[in-house]
């Protein structure tokens, strides 16, 4: 009898689902169990691993505000890459659009890889465009005021250069198995490219540490947090009891597994459909808010620019706006973290630079477009004030209240958007975690199925418990990835410059042809 992992998993989920329905009827006892588990998990991560969180997010004071050094680490890298590559995010923006549209793809050629440029872009976007664009911007504006928006845009533009560097290297140093499956990302270019430059020992250390942090980040921030917030939104919009989280978790886990069991082609085929629709839904709501309040658009932009540079107040002044803008942009688009390079490595191409150019569109879409639209909605609602009152609100509640100020029905549409964002983020991060897992433990069907099952179990756990410290830990793991990744990028960026010069010279000479 042939082993069918999908059928086995869905049977397991059906069993747990029926059990969870029974448990939901015992709401009181179940809630007590949930609380006990939550406290135990939170205590473990807080008491034993809190030092790691404090180390990664070590902050220096600016008056009454603290600035995490990890944000500065990412910002400085983005600034250096921008200068080193001559503001490539501006000079090659149109070329990047043309590549995504397939104008440099020969329809008759066969290249190694698993997905198209557009599919690689949507897969990477599905991992970055998520709850941070909804809840994170609400946090930034609640603390830093409208001026934080300006600095989000600045950092988003600079971060485009970081994505370009890491994703070019991801394709250049990827591994293609005999089956055609691709494995790539920082683990591979840190190990192999650093070895080429005579720093094999350092490269292996950076690669292993990156992989470990990637697995932890995938199971936490890329998984449990998404499931947890998705259920919280169901509770907020539709009144689904919080103690029914296990049912939400089981359903989401089954959906996630049905996609990720098929590998990168399956994930890409879903993200290329889900990402445009979820972006259209969310941006459509934002456009309706803006059009309905056209008279407030001018004052909103004035508030954004004035708040970016004025020193009025403490948390709402220049430093507060600057810090919150930097934090939200770096936390949202993950430029320099290295995660996106894993997805982009699977692209069908023989020219690494093409995918590096495609990837620089991510921070633009994620931060410059989507985060800015969220900020505009919140700012407009705050300027109107009636019937909106954002006092005391932050995160997703502030964003939700801002949309509802224009139309109450947006609460339900926003809930759908949150579910789509959470689902797409989970399937992308499952791929990131899987590639880090197989890098450490080897390729193979058993190894891969084990991680995919583990990932889906954590979906159920995430939707079920209430936690704080475990999410702080997984966030720290995700940004610890950037420490090891960026150290390598500084050594390897000359390789990328050589690739860029070669590619552009061949485009100008006509050796690389434009199609369509």
Summarize the structure.
This protein is an all-alpha fold and 516 residues long. It has a single domain (5-509), classed as Amino acid/polyamine transporter I, CATH 1.20.1740.
Question: Could you describe the 3D structure shown?
Answer:
The protein is mainly α and 516 residues long. The protein has a single domain, classed as Amino acid/polyamine transporter I (Up-down Bundle), CATH 1.20.1740. The protein is 77% helix and 2% strand. The protein has helices at residues 5-25, 27-56, 69-84, 88-91, 93-100, 117-128, 131-144, 148-172, 186-196, 200-238, 245-260, 263-292, 294-309, 318-333, 339-344, 352-359, 361-384, 395-404, 410-441, 445-464, 469-509, and strands at 59-62, 65-68, 175-176, 182-183. It has a two-stranded antiparallel sheet with strand order 1-2. A two-stranded antiparallel ribbon has the order 3-4. The longest helix has 41 residues, at 469-509.
- Characterize the largest beta sheet: strand count, sense, and whether it forms a barrel: 2 strands, antiparallel
State the low-pLDDT regions, or none: 8-28, 312-316
Q: Kindly state the percentage of residues in helix.
A: over 70%
User: Which descriptor suits the 3D outline?
Assistant: globular
Task: Tell me the CATH superfamily.
Answer: Amino acid/polyamine transporter I
Q: Fill in the CATH topology.
A: Amino acid/polyamine transporter I
Highest-level CATH class: Mainly Alpha
Q: How many H/I helices?
A: 21
Percent of residues in beta strands?
under 5%
Mean pLDDT across all amino acids:
79
The CATH architecture designation is Up-down Bundle
Query: Widest sheet: strand order?
Result: 1-2
- Please write the string of helix (H) and strand (E) elements: HHEEHHHHHHEEHHHHHHHHHHHHH
Total of domains:
1
InterPro entries: Na/Ala_symport
Signal peptide: 1-23
Family: Belongs to the alanine or glycine:cation symporter (AGCS) (TC 2.A.25) family.
Pfam families: Na_Ala_symp (PF01235)
């Amino acid at each position: 009898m042939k082993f069918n992992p999908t059928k086995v998993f869905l049977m397991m989920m059906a069993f747990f689902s029926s059990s969870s329905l029974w448990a939901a009827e015992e709401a009181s006892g179940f809630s007590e169990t949930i609380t006990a588990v939550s406290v135990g998990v939170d205590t473990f991560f807080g008491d034993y691993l809190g030092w790691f969180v404090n180390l990664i997010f070590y902050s220096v004071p600016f008056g009454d505000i603290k600035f995490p050094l990890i944000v500065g680490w990412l910002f400085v890298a983005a600034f250096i890459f921008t200068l080193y590559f001559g503001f490539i995010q501006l000079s090659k923006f149109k070329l990047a659009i043309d590549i995504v549209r397939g104008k440099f793809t020969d329809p008759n050629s066969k290249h190694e890889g698993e997905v198209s440029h557009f599919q690689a872009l949507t897969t990477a976007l599905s991992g970055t465009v998520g709850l941070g664009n909804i809840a994170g911007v609400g946090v930034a504006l609640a603390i830093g005021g409208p001026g934080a928006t300006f600095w989000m845009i600045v950092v988003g533009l600079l971060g485009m250069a970081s994505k370009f560097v890491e994703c070019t290297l991801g394709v250049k140093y990827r591994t293609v198995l005999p089956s055609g499956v691709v494995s790539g990302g920082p683990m591979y270019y840190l190990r192999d490219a650093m070895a080429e430059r005579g720093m094999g020992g350092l490269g292996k250390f950076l690669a292993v540490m990156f992989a470990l942090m990637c697995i932890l980040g995938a199971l936490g921030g890329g998984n449990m947090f998404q499931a947890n917030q998705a259920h919280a939104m169901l509770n907020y919009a539709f009144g689904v009891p919080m103690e029914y989280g296990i049912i939400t978790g089981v359903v989401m886990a089954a959906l996630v597994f049905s996609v990720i069991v098929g590998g990168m082609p399956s994930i890409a085929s879903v993200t290329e459909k889900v990402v445009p629709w979820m972006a259209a839904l969310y941006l459509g709501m934002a456009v309706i808010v803006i059009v309905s309040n056209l008279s407030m658009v001018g004052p909103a932009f004035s508030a954004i620019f004035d708040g970016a540079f004025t020193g009025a107040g403490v948390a709402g002044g220049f430093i507060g706006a600057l810090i919150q803008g930097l934090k939200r942009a770096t936390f949202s688009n993950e430029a320099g973290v290295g995660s996106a390079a894993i997805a982009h490595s699977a692209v069908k191409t023989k020219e690494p630079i093409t995918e590096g150019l495609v990837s620089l569109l991510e921070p633009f879409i994620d931060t410059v477009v989507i985060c800015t639209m969220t900020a505009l909605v919140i700012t407009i609602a705050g300027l109107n004030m009636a019937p909106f009152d954002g006092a005391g609100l932050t995160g997703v509640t502030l964003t939700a209240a801002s949309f509802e100020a224009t139309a109450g029905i947006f609460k339900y549409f926003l809930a759908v958007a949150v579910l789509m964002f959470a689902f797409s983020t989970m399937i992308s991060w499952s791929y990131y975690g899987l590639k880090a897992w197989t890098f450490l433990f080897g390729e193979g069907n058993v190894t891969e199925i084990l991680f995919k099952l583990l990932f889906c179990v954590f979906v159920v756990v995430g939707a079920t418990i209430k936690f704080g410290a475990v999410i702080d830990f997984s966030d720290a793991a995700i940004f610890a990835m950037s420490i090891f990744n960026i150290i390598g990028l500084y050594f390897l960026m000359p390789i990328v410059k050589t690739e860029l010069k070669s590619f552009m010279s061949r485009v100008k000479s006509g050796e690389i042809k434009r199609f369509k």
